[in-house]
Write a structure and sequence with these properties.
By secondary structure, the chain is α/β, with parallel strands linked by helices. It contains 13 helices and 16 strands. The radius of gyration is 27 Å and the shape is elongated.
Length: 478
């Protein structure tokens, strides 16, 4: 098939990352990448425009209607895609690839094939390893292309790549590829951020510090950009603030845990008993050179109104506690206090904490976003679910927020968490309160409150089943 491109737009190929074993499932990769790419393109006012025979589960995505600047912009932020190419040709066989390359507009090729330029050709195979001599044969088979420059393997002016797709099943690898692509390398994604910002190297961490890759994905879903003000109401050790500050946003947060906010108490790191005096969220941003974007964090209860009225934040990004590794708490007492204490203005009072039900957590979070996000601002958060009972009606909704995406990350055979992305479409009105009462989709889902019990119930059942299938251990005699 010929690719007819104008001076600005043509077809581009994205090579997707598949090297994260924990999240190898195609569904996970597709949903997160799809939303990330769409969000990054929308920052430039572009839409994701795939071809008619687009296959989401493929390790290679072809996109139409973009400029090279659009591609560079996406690749400067994405952590889900490895590389991007200007697609010159493609086909199911080597013959189809050759025919496609010969039909590609010569005016698009010529600037990169000049005699004074240098180049190299890489061969990448997905789901199959080729011998060196086989790679050389494939490169030599491209001698019909009018390359005039010299080969330079170390510092070429232009890089080209032959990419072959051998499918997704490692137990059934075909002799010949299902599909072949050839194109000019444009840019690499930001996969290095996953390694450079790994929590293993982080100065200040906690029991629930967010994985670096997921933190950057959340920031991209929220369309965080320079000079934005981003807020995390369950900030913990600030992993999400680190990711957002990397993109030039000013960051702030709150948390009910005094020890975490102030970096005191027992350490979460192995072989370290107590946290050091410089272990705090500010130090994490300083570690990555983004301390200038640190506004502040404070001890606060997410269920209590502490912010002035009005729109304050460009994005709200958070990972609420699920009651598994961190308890869900809010300030208050189970006892009704009818009379004020005698020593009202005396010593400081530390409020009693009580259970903060997950249904209330999400209801408060969505209400807060509706009142404090700017129009077009996004709320991105994790929703834990018990998989056997999950349905789309369990995702909290709000009259002022539009659901943008709902991506699943499997945690176990019976539990998962879903990354929910919402966008504010209008300011709250008095009629919204009545609408929330009348429409069951806008009322808190009580099913979330039993997530902790179902989580541990599943672990117990799994342990019991394992014990029943394993042979009994015989005690060795002395």
């Amino acid at each position: 098939m010929a690719l007819h491109c104008g001076k600005t737009f043509c077809q581009y190929l994205l090579h997707l990352a598949h090297d994260n074993v924990d999240f190898r499932l195609p569904v996970w990769r597709v949903s997160f990448l799809n939303t990330e790419i769409k969000s990054l393109l929308s920052l430039r006012g572009r839409k994701c425009d795939p071809p008619e025979n687009f296959k989401e589960r493929s390790p290679f995505w072809r996109l139409n209607g973009l400029s090279e600047d659009d591609v560079h912009s996406v690749m400067s932020r994405t952590v889900c895609a490895k590389s991007a190419f200007e697609l010159w040709g493609h086909g199911k066989t080597a013959a189809e690839l050759k025919s496609s390359l010969l039909e590609y507009p010569k005016e698009r090729m010529t600037p990169f094939l000049q005699q004074e330029s240098t180049y190299k050709i890489n061969v990448y195979t997905f789901n199959k390893t080729l011998l060196f001599k086989d790679r050389i044969e494939k490169i030599n088979a491209l001698d019909f292309l009018p390359f005039q420059g010299k080969v330079n393997l170390k510092h070429p002016d232009h890089i080209f790549c032959l990419l072959e797709d051998y499918g997704l099943d490692p137990n059934d690898i075909p002799e010949e590829p299902f599909y072949i692509y050839f194109g000019r390398w444009i840019a690499d994604g930001q996969r290095e951020l996953i390694r450079s910002h790994s929590v293993k190297k982080r100065h200040f961490i906690g029991n629930t510090s967010m994985d670096a890759g997921l933190s950057f994905i959340m920031a991209n879903h929220a369309k965080v950009k320079p000079h934005d003000l981003v807020y995390d109401p369950f900030v913990g050790t600030g992993s999400l603030l680190v990711a957002c500050s990397h993109f030039g946003a000013y960051v702030c947060g709150t948390d009910i845990d005094y020890n975490t906010i102030h970096g005191v108490g027992r350490a979460s790191r192995k072989n370290q008993k107590w946290r050091g005096p410089d272990e705090n969220i500010r130090a994490n941003l300083r570690q990555y050179g983004t301390e200038v974007f640190y506004v502040d964090v404070m001890v606060s209860d997410a269920s209590k109104p502490v912010w002035r009225k009005g729109t304050l934040f460009d994005a709200i990004i958070t990972d609420p506690p699920y009651g598994i590794r961190e308890s869900t708490r809010r300030t208050g007492s189970h006892k009704e206090i009818t009379n004020p204490p005698e020593n009202l203005f005396g010593e400081s009072h530390v409020p009693v904490s009580m259970v903060y039900h997950l249904s209330d957590v999400f209801a408060d979070l969505l209400n807060f976003a509706a009142y404090h996000l700017v129009l077009g601002g996004r709320l991105v958060y994790w929703l834990p679910v018990y998989r056997p009972e999950y349905c789309e009606e369990m995702v909290p909704l709000h009259p002022c927020l539009r659901l943008v995406s709902n991506c699943e990350q499997t945690l176990s055979s019976h539990t998962s968490r879903r990354l929910i992305t919402m966008e504010k479409t209008k300011d709250p009105e008095e009629s919204d309160a009545l609408q929330q009462l009348a429409n069951p989709r806008f009322t808190p889902n009580q099913g979330h409150n039993s997530f902790r019990e179902k989580y541990f119930s599943g672990i117990t059942k799994k342990s019991t089943a394992k014990a029943m299938t394993e042979p009994p251990q015989t005690k060795k005699s002395d």
